[in-house]
From TrEMBL:
It comes from Mesorhizobium kowhaii. It holds the Pfam family PhoX. SUPFAM superfamilies: Calcium-dependent phosphotriesterase. This is dTDP-glucose 4,6-dehydratase. Transmembrane segments: none annotated. It comes from the Bacteria.
Amino acid sequence: MANSPSSSSPVIRDVIAERVSRRTLLKGSLASGALIAGGSFVGSLFAGETHAAAALSTLGFPELKRVYDKTHAAAEGYETTIVARWGDPLVAGLPDFDGNKVAADEQEKRFGYNCDYIAFLPLPKGTVNSDHGLLCVNNEYISPNVMFPGMTEDDAGKTMSKEQVDLGMAAMGHSIVEVLLKDGKWSLVEDSPLNRRITANTEMTVSGPVAGHALMQTSADATGTKVLGTSYNCSGGFTPWGTVLTCEEGVSDLFGGDPKKAPTADVLDRYGFDGSDIYGRGRFHDRFNLDKEPNEANRFDWVVEIDPYDPQSKPVKRTALGRMSHEASTVVLNKDGRVVVYMGDDDYFEYMYRFVSNKAYDPAKPASGNDLLDDGVLSVARYEADGSMTWLPLVHGQGKLTAENGFADQAEVLLKTRLAADTLGATPMDRPEDIETNPVTGRVYAVMTKNKKRDQSKVNPANTRPENLWGHIVELIPPGGRGADADHTADKYAWDLFVLCGNPKDAAVGATFHPDTSDNGWFVCPDNITFDPAGRLWVATDGANDFDLPDGVYGVDTEGPARGLPKLLFTCPNGAEATGPCFTPDGTTLFLSVQHPAEDAETLDKVQTLWPDFKDGQLPRPSVVAIRRKDGQPVGA
C-alpha cells in the first residue's frame, strides 16, 4: 500500500528507547534546507496583528531559568508538593516503602511506576470542587535499569526473575488515589475506599464491534469478551459522565514467540510485533507468548474506560475507538450533544483519528453515557496543502474497506485500524501524541513530538521538516464558530502549523516561535499538552535531554499579540520527562507527572539522582507533583 509505513514503523520499544537513551547525545549535523510553512513565524491566521513585546504575554510569572540537575525547579512565586510517589501505600497497614524489597502482590496495593497521564475528578461526584478529588494516573512502563541492581535495559527481558517480571506487571497500568488540599498542600488519603490499582492482572470486559470476534478468542476466554489486564498506559482522557479513558500505547514488545508464524502475521507486523519480550513476560506467562496464544496480542492496544467513583466496577475496552498505539483520547461534548474523541497513534508516520458517537449525551441523565463509546464512526485525518483537512470514515463497505481488500466486516476494520487508514490514504505524521481542545476558542491542538526517520522525499503539508528532531504542534480549526459553537463532527476542518519547535537561533532548525521567545522559553519534543481555564496552552516535553536540556512545562498563548510565545514554568530532574499536565477546575493547581527520574543511567549504581526523596540506599521514584502559586491564585495568571 502506497502510504503504508510498515517497513519503517517501529515496535514500541523503539519509541521508548528514545526516551531512555539520554546518555547518547545527538550525533551528526542537523538537517539543512528544512521546508518551513508560514515563514519565520507561523501565525498566518493572525497575520494582521502586530507582534508585541514579551511583556504583553498573558502569562504573568517570571520565567524560570533552565535548570538541569538532580532535582526539579519552578518559577519564582511558585511552590511544589510531591503528591504521590511510586510505592506509596493505597491501603492502611502497609510498611514503609522500600524499593529494594517490594513484592509483586504488595505492589498491587501501592502507587504504580512511571506515572503519565493525570485526570483530576472532583469529589463529590458531579461538583467542580478544586480542593478534594480523585487523581487518576497512568503508570506507563517500568525502568528495570534503575529498579533492579546490576540490570541494564537491554538485558532485562532475558534476566528478570519471575518475581521481578510479576512486580513489573503489577507496577504498570493505572492508579486511582483520593487527594485533599489542606493549608495549600496536597496529600494522598491513604486509607480511602476509592483508592485502587488497575494492572496487567485486572479483569476487563471487551465491548463494541470487536467483542466476541474470532481473533479475540483465546484458550482462557473462548467468548472473546474478557481480557486480563492493561499495559503501556500512556495518555488518556475523561468523559462528561465521570469516567476516565486510559490509552494502551502499543504492546508489541511485551510478547515473546515468533509473530511470523502466527495466523495474523501481516497484522502483527504492521503493529510492530517482533517477539522481543523486553520484560520477560512470555517466559513465565503463556498468554504473552505468541506461539502459545497468538490472539492475545489482539486484545491490547485499545482505549480502556474506567469508573473511578466505583471501586467495584470492571474496566471496559472500547473497541469502537480503534486499535493503535493510542496517545490521548480527548473527549469533547459537541454542541449537538454527540461525543467526540480525538486520538493520536504514537509511532513514526502514523495517523490522527477522531471518533464521533452516533447518539447524544444528556447531562441531565449521566447514565446516557453508558456504552455511548460503543456506537459511532471512527475517522482518520488527511491534510491538504490548501489548509484544509478531511476526516476519512473507517467504515466497512465504504470505499476500499471491503472484504476484497482484507476487511471482512467492521470488526476487522477496527482490529486492523492502521491498515484501514493506510488503505484510505491518510496523512503520515511525525509521531502524533496528545490532542487537546482549547475551551475558549474551540480550536484543537495536536502534538507531533518528532520523527528522525522522515527524509526529504516524505515531507508533506503538515510535516514539513526532514529529520524532524524537534517536533511541532498543529492547530485544527473546526467550522461553526468559536468555543462551544465549533462543530467537532464536521467532515472538513481548516488547519495551520502553530509552532515548529527547536532553537530559533539555529537557522538550520527552522523553528517558528514568536520572535520575542527567550533563550529559556523555546522547547523541543512537545509530548503532552493541556489548557487552563483561561485558554492558555501548557506543553510538557519529552526528549530535551537529548539536547542536554531539562524536560519541563511551558505556558503559551494561542491568540493575541503573544501568540506562540512560550514561557518556562517548571523543569524536571536528571533523566526525567514531564508528562500528564492537568489543572483543577479553578486553575489554581497544575498536577504533573515526573516520569522515569535517573533513567539515563546505564545501571542503578550509576544514577545521577535519587529524586524525590534523596535517601541513600533507596531508589529514584517517579512521582506526581502539584504546582501552585504561593498566593493561591490561578497558575500562570
